[in-house]
Structure formats: structure tokens, C-alpha cells
Design goal:
heterodimer, A: 301 residues, Thrombin, subunit H, 35% helix, elongated, B: 187 residues, mainly alpha, transmembrane (chain B), Rod shape-determining protein MreD (chain B), transmembrane helix (chain B), membrane (chain B), transmembrane helix (chain A)
Chain lengths: 301, 187
């Protein structure tokens, strides 16, 4: 160590804190200027910690599982009765569904129906709820190499969960539909209105921009609209509920508070390219910059 | 609390500083920062505890304030910087905000430590209440400014109240630790 005089050393020590405060201000500015850098560093740290968080989650799940099983044992008789009744009911609906499926197949065969491409999906476990005071998101440990891309759709067993926003090498961050920055175009199934579901960090996202002459009906199902490239129409989202008159919210089907296993769907964003609108002037590419000064005799389009 | 001074200023016969002695001293001196870092990691883990996210700033500020007042050698500015970075990287807010807040709290505690360390614990608590209120207000202001909309204040009020409530408990734990296993003079 270089021998320094005591006064000089004290002066240097006094300089450390102001320098660090300036560095903190610099980090704030850097974080505002380059968000992707912050995302990368955070995902790096999350990747390192994901196995440890998995270890923390595992015993909790086991305990919850055990508790649930013990509770189930207590009411096994009533459950049995209920299941018997439900089974009888479902048997009827099974016949109805089978008949409808046959009819549907016949109708589609008559109409030369083109089937929708079936999406590929990756299943992962939610390892950490990264919701802070002002964001709602979760970290999903999944095999990213299996082909998870940004903006893909995440569903759990019962409905839409959110969208993938950041990708690491072993985990992805999912922005829940309850986050304040989440806006999802939805369709209402009974009133047939279109609306935007806007998250506000509470458990129930608000519904905005719905048609004023055709208000949402209490209890009706909300499904996705299909107006975003990555999101097909008809995914179940939730149910309308009026908190007070004139203020409809959506109660999500997915249990966003206790997410466990979710699926990340790839609906093939680049697979569908929207056709050019008829009559639109084609964008001039650099290659054909020397076009003829007079209209081509062959015409266009 | 014993003052944490360099050995050359302490009178009396000192044993030879062997490797083990030095390691022991280092671990005792590093214990407060290590415990705080551990608390940050644990509170970011998915335990589904109510108020877990709001408790983290309270515990961090309490720990930084307490150790900066009573033993700045164990909570030096670079260590505070690293702790702040850790919290910011584990969180989801605008980066650098918690880092700046925690450094400022550390600076306030350092500049007033000769008065604070002699004060009664209740007076120290009141001082901490004021400092953490200012820190929380600064955090709220910065986050609102950086995200360009007013974030709800109620969560930050809850965070401040939790910090105020947890400070005396942590004081008891820390001063016990500071006298026993985190004391470099008891090597």
C-alpha cells in the first residue's frame, strides 16, 4: 500500500461517499437511457438465483399439497356424493358434446374449413413472484432453448396469465395481465362488444373503451380479441363484474395469486403476414429506384 | 458498544495477528453486511408472506442506519453501495433509486453518528423515523418522476410504517450481535 499522510487519507476517505452517490445518480440515468441493459443484468442475476428459489418453493408446495390433501380427506364423503351427481350430469353433456363434434366435423367438411394451426407450447414452473410495489410479474423457469420468444402468450390451466417480456437463458419474466402497464384487447361474449382490459396492479383489471351504447353484462365471459399478432382470438380471460355502477372490472379465470405451472404458447407471430390493402401504393424499395418516368402499360395490381 | 478502532490506537498488549485471528476478525467485522445481504435475498425469495416486498426497504434502511451509526467499519460506503445494487437488481423498479436512497441514509447516519450513538434509543428511533420518512418520500418522488406518473402513495406509507415498526426490534437484535458474535474486539 502506498504510504499516504493521515490528512490525505482522511480526505480520500471522505471522498468515497460523494463519489458513490454520483455513481448512483449515474446508474439512475443509465437505467433510464438503456433499459435493455438493466433487463439483461437483472435476468442474469435471476438466472443465477432461479435454482435457489426453486428450492424455496418446493417445500412450500409440498406443505400446501399435504394440507390440501388432509382437508380433502375430511370431506371425502360429501365430495363423493357431489362427484357422483356431477358425473351423471357430465355423462349427459358428453353425449351432447360428441353429437356436436360430429355435426361440427360434418359441417366443416361441407364448408372446406381451413383448420387453425395448432400452437406449440413450453411448460414451466413459476419460481418467483417478482411483483413489487408497482409491478405485477412472475419469473418462470422454463427451457428457453425450446423456443420461447418475447411477446408470447402465457396461460395456466384456466385462462390467460400474461405475456413474456424478458428472456434469460433459463428463465423468462412474464408480465401479468394485472400489471399497470398491461393493455389487452378483449371481446365480450354476450354483449359482443370490444374493449381494452387495462391492468391497475390490483387483482381485477379495469375494462376501458367499451361501447357506451352496449355496456358489458355482469357475469359474461371475456375472451381475447385477436387484434394483436401474437394473440389468437377466443382465449379465455375472465368474467365481468361491476364493482359499482358504470365501473366494470374483469375477474381473471387464472389464479394469478397462486401461479404454479404455466404454459408459454407460440402462436407463430411471423407466420401470418397481413396482406396489403387493395389499392395501396407499394413501398418503393431501393432496388427499383430507377423506375420508368411514365406509367407502365401493364399497370399495377 | 465498543469502538471499532484500528489496533495501533488501542493501548495494551496485543496477541500476534495470526491468520486465524485475522479471519475471525474479518468474519466478525463482515457479519452485519452479510446478514443484511442475506435478509435481502430471503425477502426477495417467493415465500408468499404478506407485506414481504414492503418489509424489505424497512429492514435494509434499519440495518444500514444502525450499523452506520454504531460501527461504520462494518457498514462502509462501498458495502452500502453493493447492498443497494443487490436490492435494485432483485427488484423491478427503476434501477438506482433504492441505491441512492440507501447511500443518502448512510451519509446522514455517518454525519450525525457522534450525536446519534450517545442518544437514548427512543431518541434514535425518532431520528430514524424522520430519516426513513424522508428516504421513503424521496423514493416515491424519484419513482414517480422516472416512471412519469404518480405511483400510489399508500404502498410507500405502509412501507415506512413497517420500517418504523421493525427498527426497535432490529436494534435489540443488532446490539446483542454487536456485543457478541459480531464484535471484532472479542477475537
Amino acid at each position: 500500500m502506498i504510504p499516504l499522510s493521515i490528512t490525505l487519507r482522511q480526505a480520500l476517505e471522505r471522498l468515497v461517499l460523494p463519489i458513490l452517490i454520483v455513481a448512483a445518480l449515474g446508474i439512475i440515468l443509465l437505467g433510464q437511457a438503456d433499459r435493455s441493459l438493466t433487463e439483461r443484468v437483472r435476468m442474469g442475476l435471476a438466472d443465477i438465483l432461479a435454482p435457489a428459489y426453486g428450492l424455496v418453493v418446493w417445500p412450500q408446495e409440498q406443505a400446501r399439497d399435504l394440507l390440501g390433501r388432509m382437508r380433502d380427506m375430511g370431506r371425502i364423503e360429501a365430495e363423493n356424493q357431489r362427484l357422483r351427481a356431477e358425473n351423471a350430469n357430465l355423462r349427459h353433456w358428453y353425449d351432447v358434446a360428441a353429437a356436436l363434434a360430429d355435426e361440427n366435423a360434418a359441417l366443416k367438411a361441407n364448408l372446406h374449413w381451413m383448420p387453425d394451426p395448432s400452437p406449440s407450447f413450453v411448460t414451466g414452473r413459476v419460481v418467483r413472484d417478482t411483483s413489487g410495489l408497482y409491478a405485477r410479474s412472475v419469473l418462470v423457469a422454463a427451457n428457453v432453448d425450446a423456443g420461447i420468444h418475447k411477446d408470447e402468450i402465457v396461460l395456466d390451466g384456466s385462462g390467460l396469465v400474461g405475456r413474456v417480456t424478458e428472456i434469460g437463458s433459463r428463465s423468462v419474466r412474464v408480465l401479468l395481465l394485472t400489471d399497470a402497464s398491461s393493455r389487452i384487447p378483449v371481446r365480450l361474449e354476450v354483449s359482443h362488444g370490444a374493449a381494452i382490459m387495462a391492468g391497475d396492479n390490483s387483482g381485477t383489471p379495469r375494462l376501458i373503451y367499451y361501447p357506451q351504447d352496449n355496456p358489458p353484462v355482469e357475469g359474461e365471459r371475456v375472451v381475447t380479441n385477436g387484434e394483436i399478432d401474437t394473440m389468437p382470438a377466443g382465449l379465455p380471460v375472465g368474467q365481468i363484474h361491476y364493482v359499482r355502477p358504470g365501473q366494470p372490472v374483469v375477474i381473471p379465470f387464472a389464479s394469478l395469486g397462486h401461479l404454479d405451472i404455466v404454459r408459454v404458447f407460440d402462436y407463430g407471430r411471423s407466420a401470418v403476414v397481413p396482406p396489403d390493402a387493395p389499392g395501396r401504393i407499394p413501398v418503393r424499395r431501393p432496388a427499383d429506384s430507377f423506375s420508368l418516368p411514365f406509367p407502365s402499360p401493364l399497370g399495377r395490381g | 458498544m465498543t469502538p471499532d478502532q484500528a489496533p495501533e490506537f488501542q493501548p495494551g498488549i496485543q496477541p500476534r495477528p495470526s491468520l486465524w485471528r485475522r479471519l475471525d476478525m474479518l468474519s466478525r467485522r463482515g457479519l452485519p453486511a452479510a446478514l443484511t445481504g442475506m435478509a435481502v435475498l430471503l425477502l426477495s425469495a417467493p415465500f408468499d408472506l404478506p407485506g414481504q416486498a414492503e418489509l424489505l426497504p424497512g429492514i435494509l434502511l434499519s440495518s444500514v442506519f444502525f450499523w452506520s451509526v454504531f460501527r461504520p467499519a462494518s457498514m462502509s460506503s462501498p458495502i452500502v453501495f453493493l447492498l443497494g445494487m443487490l436490492v435494485d437488481l432483485l427488484g423491478f423498479g427503476p434501477p438506482g433509486v433504492m441505491l441512492l436512497v440507501v447511500l443518502l441514509v448512510h451519509g446522514v447516519a455517518l454525519s450525525g453518528r457522534y450525536g446519534f450513538s450517545r442518544a437514548h434509543i427512543l431518541v434514535l428511533w425518532l431520528v430514524f423515523d424522520g430519516v426513513s420518512l424522508a428516504a421513503t418520500a424521496l423514493q416515491w418522488g424519484l419513482i414517480s418522476a422516472l416512471s412519469l406518473h404518480l405511483v400510489p402513495m399508500i404502498a410507500f406509507a405502509f412501507q415506512w410504517v413497517l420500517g418504523v415498526g421493525v427498527f426497535p426490534l432490529l436494534c435489540v437484535v443488532f446490539s446483542t450481535l454487536g456485543r457478541s458474535i459480531a464484535n471484532p474486539d472479542r477475537v
